[in-house]
Design brief:
Blueprint (H helix, E strand, L loop, with lengths): L3 H10 L11 H9 L3 E5 L11 E3 L2 E2 L4 E7 L3 H7 L4 E6 L17 E9 L2 H14 L1 H17 L2 E8 L1
Antiparallel strand pairs: 1-2, 1-5, 3-4, 4-7, 5-6, 6-7
Helix pairs in contact: 4-5
Length: about 160
Protein backbone atom coordinates (compact mmCIF):
# COMPACT_ATOMS: atom_id res chain seq x y z
CA UNK A 1 0.00 0.00 0.00
CA UNK A 2 1.26 3.48 -0.84
CA UNK A 3 1.76 5.57 2.28
CA UNK A 4 1.18 9.30 2.45
CA UNK A 5 4.93 9.82 2.95
CA UNK A 6 5.77 7.82 -0.20
CA UNK A 7 3.19 9.79 -2.19
CA UNK A 8 4.59 13.14 -1.01
CA UNK A 9 8.19 12.12 -1.71
CA UNK A 10 7.24 10.72 -5.12
CA UNK A 11 5.34 13.86 -6.06
CA UNK A 12 8.22 16.09 -4.99
CA UNK A 13 10.75 14.13 -7.08
CA UNK A 14 8.65 13.81 -10.23
CA UNK A 15 9.64 17.20 -11.74
CA UNK A 16 13.37 16.48 -11.45
CA UNK A 17 13.44 12.83 -12.54
CA UNK A 18 13.87 13.70 -16.24
CA UNK A 19 17.12 15.51 -15.35
CA UNK A 20 18.83 12.32 -14.20
CA UNK A 21 20.82 10.64 -16.96
CA UNK A 22 20.68 13.67 -19.22
CA UNK A 23 23.24 16.28 -20.10
CA UNK A 24 22.45 19.80 -18.88
CA UNK A 25 21.58 22.27 -21.63
CA UNK A 26 24.64 24.46 -20.91
CA UNK A 27 26.90 21.42 -21.16
CA UNK A 28 25.21 20.28 -24.39
CA UNK A 29 25.78 23.74 -25.81
CA UNK A 30 29.44 23.63 -24.78
CA UNK A 31 29.86 20.16 -26.33
CA UNK A 32 28.20 21.36 -29.52
CA UNK A 33 30.27 24.56 -29.84
CA UNK A 34 33.67 23.72 -28.37
CA UNK A 35 36.50 22.45 -30.51
CA UNK A 36 38.28 20.81 -27.58
CA UNK A 37 37.72 18.72 -24.51
CA UNK A 38 40.26 18.25 -21.74
CA UNK A 39 40.40 14.62 -20.72
CA UNK A 40 41.90 12.44 -18.01
CA UNK A 41 41.43 8.74 -17.28
CA UNK A 42 40.32 7.80 -13.78
CA UNK A 43 42.66 5.38 -12.02
CA UNK A 44 41.47 2.27 -10.19
CA UNK A 45 41.62 4.15 -6.86
CA UNK A 46 39.23 6.81 -8.21
CA UNK A 47 41.90 9.51 -8.59
CA UNK A 48 42.54 11.40 -11.81
CA UNK A 49 45.50 10.26 -13.84
CA UNK A 50 48.39 12.69 -14.11
CA UNK A 51 48.00 12.22 -17.88
CA UNK A 52 45.65 14.82 -19.24
CA UNK A 53 45.25 16.27 -22.67
CA UNK A 54 43.22 18.54 -24.89
CA UNK A 55 41.70 16.58 -27.75
CA UNK A 56 39.46 16.92 -30.78
CA UNK A 57 36.16 15.12 -30.40
CA UNK A 58 32.78 14.49 -31.98
CA UNK A 59 29.64 14.77 -29.85
CA UNK A 60 26.54 13.02 -31.20
CA UNK A 61 24.12 15.48 -29.58
CA UNK A 62 22.92 12.94 -27.04
CA UNK A 63 25.25 10.81 -24.90
CA UNK A 64 28.19 9.72 -27.05
CA UNK A 65 31.57 11.36 -27.58
CA UNK A 66 34.10 9.99 -30.06
CA UNK A 67 37.86 10.60 -30.04
CA UNK A 68 40.53 9.36 -32.46
CA UNK A 69 43.94 8.81 -30.93
CA UNK A 70 47.17 6.94 -31.53
CA UNK A 71 46.98 3.25 -30.65
CA UNK A 72 49.56 3.61 -27.87
CA UNK A 73 48.16 6.86 -26.42
CA UNK A 74 47.54 6.81 -22.67
CA UNK A 75 43.78 7.19 -23.11
CA UNK A 76 43.62 4.11 -25.37
CA UNK A 77 45.93 2.13 -23.09
CA UNK A 78 43.79 3.03 -20.08
CA UNK A 79 40.69 1.56 -21.74
CA UNK A 80 42.57 -1.59 -22.81
CA UNK A 81 43.71 -2.00 -19.18
CA UNK A 82 40.12 -1.81 -17.96
CA UNK A 83 40.32 1.79 -16.74
CA UNK A 84 37.24 2.86 -18.67
CA UNK A 85 36.18 5.84 -16.55
CA UNK A 86 37.29 9.29 -17.67
CA UNK A 87 36.57 12.88 -16.72
CA UNK A 88 36.34 15.66 -19.28
CA UNK A 89 36.05 19.41 -19.17
CA UNK A 90 34.51 21.11 -22.19
CA UNK A 91 36.08 24.29 -23.51
CA UNK A 92 39.19 25.83 -24.99
CA UNK A 93 42.03 26.84 -22.71
CA UNK A 94 45.10 26.12 -24.84
CA UNK A 95 47.63 23.40 -24.17
CA UNK A 96 46.68 21.80 -20.84
CA UNK A 97 50.22 22.00 -19.42
CA UNK A 98 50.10 25.78 -19.86
CA UNK A 99 46.44 26.19 -18.90
CA UNK A 100 47.05 25.63 -15.20
CA UNK A 101 43.75 24.62 -13.65
CA UNK A 102 41.68 27.05 -15.76
CA UNK A 103 39.97 24.18 -17.61
CA UNK A 104 38.53 22.98 -14.28
CA UNK A 105 36.06 25.89 -14.41
CA UNK A 106 34.54 24.47 -17.61
CA UNK A 107 31.52 22.15 -17.77
CA UNK A 108 32.61 18.74 -16.48
CA UNK A 109 31.34 15.25 -17.27
CA UNK A 110 32.15 11.69 -16.27
CA UNK A 111 32.37 9.19 -19.12
CA UNK A 112 32.69 5.45 -19.66
CA UNK A 113 34.99 4.55 -22.55
CA UNK A 114 35.35 1.69 -24.98
CA UNK A 115 37.17 0.98 -28.22
CA UNK A 116 34.95 1.61 -31.25
CA UNK A 117 35.75 -0.98 -33.96
CA UNK A 118 32.65 -0.69 -36.15
CA UNK A 119 33.78 0.77 -39.48
CA UNK A 120 30.39 2.35 -40.28
CA UNK A 121 30.33 4.09 -36.90
CA UNK A 122 33.92 5.25 -37.42
CA UNK A 123 33.11 6.60 -40.88
CA UNK A 124 30.05 8.48 -39.61
CA UNK A 125 32.02 10.01 -36.73
CA UNK A 126 34.89 10.98 -39.05
CA UNK A 127 32.47 12.65 -41.46
CA UNK A 128 31.10 14.81 -38.65
CA UNK A 129 34.62 15.58 -37.43
CA UNK A 130 35.51 16.62 -40.96
CA UNK A 131 32.75 19.22 -40.90
CA UNK A 132 33.66 20.41 -37.41
CA UNK A 133 37.40 20.69 -38.11
CA UNK A 134 37.14 21.62 -41.80
CA UNK A 135 40.16 23.95 -41.81
CA UNK A 136 42.50 21.18 -40.61
CA UNK A 137 40.72 18.14 -42.05
CA UNK A 138 42.66 18.10 -45.31
CA UNK A 139 45.70 17.05 -43.27
CA UNK A 140 44.14 15.22 -40.32
CA UNK A 141 41.23 13.46 -42.03
CA UNK A 142 43.44 11.14 -44.09
CA UNK A 143 45.73 10.55 -41.09
CA UNK A 144 42.79 9.54 -38.92
CA UNK A 145 41.19 7.39 -41.64
CA UNK A 146 44.40 5.62 -42.64
CA UNK A 147 45.44 5.19 -39.01
CA UNK A 148 42.14 3.51 -38.16
CA UNK A 149 42.58 1.16 -41.14
CA UNK A 150 46.20 0.22 -40.38
CA UNK A 151 45.62 0.07 -36.59
CA UNK A 152 48.10 2.84 -35.76
CA UNK A 153 45.10 4.78 -34.40
CA UNK A 154 41.94 3.79 -32.56
CA UNK A 155 38.56 5.40 -32.15
CA UNK A 156 37.35 5.69 -28.58
CA UNK A 157 33.65 5.89 -27.77
CA UNK A 158 32.79 7.60 -24.51
CA UNK A 159 29.30 7.37 -23.07
CA UNK A 160 28.24 10.12 -20.70
CA UNK A 161 27.55 8.50 -17.36
Amino acid sequence: MLTRRQAVIGASLTPILPLFGQVADATKEALTNSRLIYMTPIKSDGAESTCKGEVWFMYDGDSQIFVVTQYEAWRANAIRQGLTSARIWVGEFGIWTRAGDSYRSAPELMLEGSIEDDVETQDAALAKMGTKYSDEWGVWGPRFREGLRDDSRVMLRYTIS
